[in-house]
Design brief:
heterodimer, A: 278 residues, mainly alpha, Helix Hairpins, 3 domains, 10 helices, B: 287 residues, Farnesyl Diphosphate Synthase, 3% strand
């Protein structure tokens, strides 16, 4: 746990041995160095190695997933809670950063990132699904989360209010269910807008795009709808820029892949026995 | 599902290209060692990506060398093998086997049936080695088949299913390779990658599926190619974001060559003429 005896959180940058304005690449390299030095597998018999590794992991997590800690740190400051809040700490306690989702070994931590501190839906294989807001990571490590919290409006039906409530409570699956119960006669631009938000939060990206497009078609002047569409556009742009920064473009293709339609292997290649070597 | 998580080679240096190929050759060697010559039919660059990923995560010792083989009888090809290559080899067999089962169910060609018979023995051995993962693959494929056969399946449902499978396989890989504490983050990445692979494949198959009347999540939607590209870019952004949060340094450029560029190649090939969006107007360049 990163807390010092005084209850202040030890600086994660100090733990990793990097400066505060270190780039993400530098942070990763620093992590690697610390991991090589401290990983328990590489330090058999050193019982403190496990504890050091926990600290290093948490420091890295704090730097790369700042939104996770904003909420829990704020809570701890206000309640004076000084217990086990580490995502890698014990499985006991009142739960992880988003309150209620426990980390229990291989079951996975319930850390929901992205829009509005949502919870996560447990998957069937023993770990939880999350949604990542790409913009959050590359908007600088201290960027405010650009989450969309829909607000109730006059004229909203009871179901619509319930759906809005569910979205803001981080329960997109429930919101989707509620909205689907509204018959097609009740599906106006606002319905498509809320359905888009719920689907986006649930990771249903295709549905989110399709529905916000419909909302905008029905009400092109609406600023809320435009704002949502803009967040999608920004995420796409950030990705493209990141790629270009590394020398990659999303267009074009290598001639080497042309020889094999399946891009798999020589034997089952449609042009067999052409060898797909580079 | 294969052929999407491949690298874009053009921006890579010769050393990087050679290293990328070496992971592929290493996977091939491991397949041969574990399953015999026939198993090389299940070889893919996609599963080589998994080796690169797990090796980057755990930085294990790598067995590197160069050797001749049946496909390269004259030139010694460099290879890289590590403890993670075995897991990728087992998965290669399992995933290929289930893909063949799918083909048999869909088309029932002689070729598909022959492939099923050929891979049956290897699959049984894979089941002994990675029983949970094989069960997960089986369950996922079955659920996807159900979803594809149901009307009103939401467009993301199958992608989510496949995403969860990839998530589980990556989480399991992380546990085996490195540390259970990284299972969550690696699983998240696997999940986003799985959704991306499924949807990219769906976009690529759309023209064919529309002709044959096969299920396709994009079929019921009225999206043009630029719109499909936009959606896929956001899905790719999620995968890239999850990747960038991981402390991966070794061979990061190879993995980025996949995530930021390579994944688009099949799409670009199919939609060559329509892939480019309208040129954006000049943004504030003052004369």
């Amino acid at each position: 746990m990163l807390k010092t005896i005084a209850g202040n959180v030890e600086n994660p940058y100090d733990i990793l041995g990097v400066s505060r304005d270190a780039s993400l690449d530098e942070v990763k390299k620093a992590y690697r160095k610390k991991a090589r030095e401290n990983h328990p597998d590489l330090n058999p018999g050193d019982t403190a190695a496990e504890e050091r590794m926990n600290k290093i992991n948490e420091a890295y997590d704090r730097i790369t997933n700042p939104e996770k800690y904003r909420a829990s740190d704020a809570r701890k400051r206000s309640t004076g809670y000084g217990g086990a809040g580490s995502p890698y700490g014990g499985a006991s306690g009142t739960g992880g950063p988003f309150g209620g989702a426990e980390y229990g070994g291989p079951g996975g931590a319930g850390y929901g990132t992205g829009t509005g501190g949502q919870g996560s839906d447990a998957g069937p294989y023993g770990w939880t699904t999350v949604n990542i807001d790409f913009e959050d990571l590359f908007g600088g490590f201290n960027a405010q989360q650009a989450s969309v919290h829909p607000e109730e409006a006059a004229g909203d039906s009871a179901e619509v209010r319930q759906a809005i409530s569910a979205i803001n409570a981080g329960q997109p699956a429930r919101a989707i269910q509620i909205l689907q119960q509204i018959p097609s006669t009740g599906r106006n631009a606002r319905w498509y807008y809320l359905f888009a938000l719920a689907n986006d939060a649930a990771g249903n990206t295709v549905a989110a795009h399709d529905n916000i497009r419909r909302a905008r078609q029905l009400d092109p002047q609406n600023m809320d709808y435009q704002r949502v569409e803009n967040t999608f556009t920004r995420r796409a742009q950030t990705y493209t820029q990141q790629g270009e920064g590394r020398g990659f473009t999303t267009f074009g293709m290598d001639p080497a892949w042309c020889c094999c339609a399946a891009m798999v292997c020589p034997t089952f290649c449609m042009n067999a026995p052409v060898v797909c070597c580079l | 599902m294969f052929g999407v998580a491949v690298a874009r080679l053009e921006p890579l240096s010769d050393a990087e290209k050679q290293r990328y190929q070496a992971f592929y050759c290493g996977l091939c060697r491991t397949l041969k060692q574990r399953y015999g010559q026939l198993s090389r039919a299940v070889l893919s660059y996609d599963l080589a990506f998994l080796v690169i990923f797990l090796d980057s995560l755990s930085e294990p010792s790598q067995d590197a060398g160069a050797d001749r083989c049946i496909v390269h009888p004259k030139k010694r090809m460099p290879f890289i093998q590590s403890a993670n290559t075995a897991y990728a080899a087992d998965l290669s067999v399992a995933l290929a086997y289930h893909k063949v089962l799918d083909d048999v169910a869909d088309d029932d060609t002689m070729r598909a049936r022959a492939a099923q018979v050929a891979l049956r023995g290897a699959y049984e051995r894979a089941q002994e080695r990675i029983p949970d993962e094989c069960a997960a693959i089986e369950a996922c494929m079955e659920r996807i088949r159900e979803l594809e056969g149901t009307s009103d399946t939401p467009p993301d449902a199958c992608a989510q299913e496949f995403g969860r499978l990839m998530g589980a396989l990556f989480a399991s890989g992380a546990r085996r390779a490195w540390d259970a504490r990284w299972a969550q983050a690696c699983g998240t990445f696997g999940e986003t990658l799985g959704r991306l692979i499924y949807l990219m494949d769906a976009a690529v198959d759309l023209p064919t599926d529309q002709r044959t009347g096969s299920y396709n999540p994009f079929a019921a939607l009225t999206m043009d190619v630029p719109q499909m590209r936009q959606v896929l870019t956001v899905v790719a952004a999620d995968a890239a974001s999850a990747f960038e949060r991981l402390p991966l340094v070794q061979d990061a450029q190879l993995m980025r060559a996949v995530l930021y560029a390579g994944i688009w190649q099949k799409f670009n090939r199919v939609y060559e003429d329509q892939a480019h969006p309208a040129e954006a107007p000049d943004q504030g360049v003052v004369g």
